[in-house]
Amino acid sequence: MNTMTTTTTTTVLDASDVTMRFGGLTAVRSVSLTVNSGEIVGLIGPNGAGKTTFFNCLTGLYVPTEGKVSYKGTVLPPKPHLVTQAGIARTFQNIRLFANMTVLENVLVGRHTRTKEGLWSALLRGPGFKRAEKESKERAMELLEFTGLAAKADHLARNLPYGEQRKLEIARALASEPGLLLLDEPTAGMNPQETRAAEELIFAIRDMGIAVLVIEHDMRFIFNLCDRVACLVQGEKLVEGTPEVVQSDERVIAAYLGTPFEGAPGADELAEVEAAEAAAPSTNSRTEEAQ
Amino acid sequence: MADTITKNSPPTGGDVTPLISLPAATARIATVAGSVLALAGTFMAWTWTSAFPGDLTVTGYPGGLQVLVLISSALTLLFALSGYGIRGLNWVAPGGPNAAARLTALGTLGTVGYTLGAIAFQLGGVVNLEPGAWVAGIGALIAVVGSLALPFDQPFPAGDPDKGGWARFRHSLTAPHPPRARALPSAVEILIIVAGFALGLIVFTYGIDTEYGELFVGFLITVAFAFTGLARAGLVSRLTALTARYRGISLAAAFAAALCFPFTQDNDYYALIGTNILIFATVALGLNVVVGLAGLLDLGYVAFLGVGAYTAALVSGSAASTIGVEFPFWAAVLTGGAVSLVFGVVIGAPTLRLRGDYLAIVTLGFGEIFRVTMNNLNGASGPDVTNGAQGISAIPDVKIFGFDLGSPHDIGGFTLGRNANYFLLMLLFTAIVVMVFNRSGSSRIGRAWVAIREDETAATAMGINGFRVKLIAFALGATLAGLAGTVQAHVAYSVTPDQYEFAGTAPPNSAFLLAAVILGGMGTVSGPLIGGALLYLIPAKLDFMDDYQLLLFGLALILLMRFRPEGIVANKRAQLQFHENDQLDLPEQRLSDTAVDTTKAGA
């Protein structure tokens, strides 16, 4: 399964000056981002920064107002199925599995672009059809082994627990044999243990030779995982660099935690307020009780 | 014996207190005695005059509705006795005998009650009832009371806040899923499948051959309760497990059973009902590709049947046809299918870019446009193609290899009339449509349809060209309907525009087709076939309630959607045999799973 990563890095994804406007609102403003082969790139930013919109521009769900997205040197057409066919697969922020299909069927749907059998071959059931179905099933089962879902291949997707649904979404995306995998908040709602497992999984995907672009809010996760991190704030790319650079960038911290506003209480005033609060603890405790 | 006791005694640690509190032994005795009494009652006279249809005046020889009561009470007796754990009767109720006994007892009471009511109503008073009727009625009542006092087959859920009588009553009619069956020799298992389909054929034929409305109503009551009873007893799921294992044999057995149908009919009118059922059910199955698999709500589907029928009529060589050509039947079929395909693509291409409601409205419009156009192409308000409201009449019978389907033929001592011939021809088409549905459904394209139905955005993100795949589904559905239409034109002798309206009192029309799919079960093969058969038979048999037909139909549909939204045949994708633990997210399993995954993913 492990195809070795090539030593020479090539640019897999090249988004240049992508701008997305919805009427008067500019959700993404001339963002450029490249992802190289064998790389895990993180995309962070506060809620509403335009991360998912940017993702949707990359995968053809939205047609960018300006700018272009190219994959391995060819400009991508703004149609989701053609983007997937070109080699970019994605998962969704809110899990979008085919709930009433089995786990195996979900992965088989992911194989859609890599198989060619149309209606006629399905009706005639020639040897070619049977071979293709068998191959697809084997490949899908391999991916389920890889993500650890093989034992639940016959379960309905909606019956899986949350963490496994996330894994299934990744398995389904991998089934389209992508060169680049876009993960939209893969650890949202997971406990620390599951997050660590997801981290291992993403490293393993990278080792298969697939570049990964990941949106995430969990900073520990993203700084552990990524070779490069870009921070998006209000539709604009604020900073891009190694995790250390981004982590220590004041603007990033300000974007997440806010900046002191004009006439904000200084240290003196704060101390004063704290002293006042300490002086009247009884009123505080009473209100707490009342609540 | 020990195994029997553990199986049939209620599970411990839960509330299994029955609805009516009686000592358990008394309850069971009452059920047995009641059903024996009802059974005995069917051998006595129920009324004094043969004016009531079916002649219920003969003692010692049950007739008409009495036979139904006899069967129903015999089933009750069987389940009640099985509750005693009698050796050799265990197989009757692997899921649990009590719910099944309750249901069949209720069915007996329903049929007896209906019969007594009908006699009293038609003959003018309860004085017309003979003692036999009272014996059967009281027996059924005792059986119901006794069976309601039997313990639940599965404990009432402790956490359920709704402890009202209705909730408990509904719960009392449920039973746990039966454990996996012991493997029998495959010859025996195949025999069981064949017997199952033979039974199905007998029940179906009985339903078609009912000669008067009262008998049909009684038939519906009996079958509905008996079938649910058998399902609760676990026999239906045992049979479906077998059919799932021997798919090919089951399919062959089903078609063999259908093939036998015309040979059981000596009345060609009933064969015509069978043929029309087959046409209706086949078109419903074609619609199931569009609605059930791809999730496209098509409200004008009957128009494609019309396109096929009109095409076949025009090229049939009928004197009323405006183009004087006569194609051989196979060419007419291909032409009909091809023209429907073209119409499907022409209608589908601009509209399938729309989602949901818009598509429904456009197809609804198309269905009406088709009918109005056929009306107007009459030479007065447009070119003369279809003869307007008169339609194309006197369509000659199909001749295949010199075999005239219009005249009776003798096969093996049986005389097959015109309609029986067409039944066999139509059965071939049904087989083709079933094959197309099965094969396309379980393939790359079928998975793409279901994916589109489940989540179109995710499906396109997985590389599925949504528009293309939907267009294939739409065009395939149109073609299948067109094929059925070519046969329908010949069966009906004539095609007129008002055969193909959106809603009417008689099938096929778009509303009934959709209802057959939803009633039967979306995305299944047998669902639309069963739903189609029911929806055709009920209006055909109950013509005495002509004025209220649609009202009752709507009421039945509402009730069904309330109590069984998945339809008669539920679509269990890939025979999910782990139904009993539907909630799979067990917390203790989850931790160990992720631990394993970590090592796997890291490896």
UniProtKB/TrEMBL annotation, chain A:
Keywords: ATP-binding, Nucleotide-binding, Transport. The keyword Aminoacyl-tRNA synthetase does not apply. PROSITE patterns: ABC_TRANSPORTER_2. The keyword Zinc does not apply. GO terms for molecular function: ATP binding. CDD domains: ABC_Mj1267_LivG_branched (cd03219). It comes from Streptomyces polyasparticus. InterPro entries: AAA+_ATPase, ABC_AA/LPS_Transport, ABC_transporter-like_ATP-bd, BCA_ABC_TP_C, P-loop_NTPase. Residues 13-259 form the ABC transporter domain. This is ABC transporter ATP-binding protein.
From TrEMBL, chain B:
It is a multi-pass membrane protein. It is found in: Cell membrane. Its main location: membrane. The chain crosses the membrane at residues 29-48, 68-87, 99-121, 133-152, 190-209, 215-234, 246-264, 270-294, 301-323, 329-349, 356-374, 420-437, 471-491, 511-536. It holds the Pfam family BPD_transp_2. Keywords: Cell membrane, Membrane, Transmembrane, Transmembrane helix. The keyword Acetylation does not apply. This is Branched-chain amino acid ABC transporter permease. It comes from Streptomyces polyasparticus.
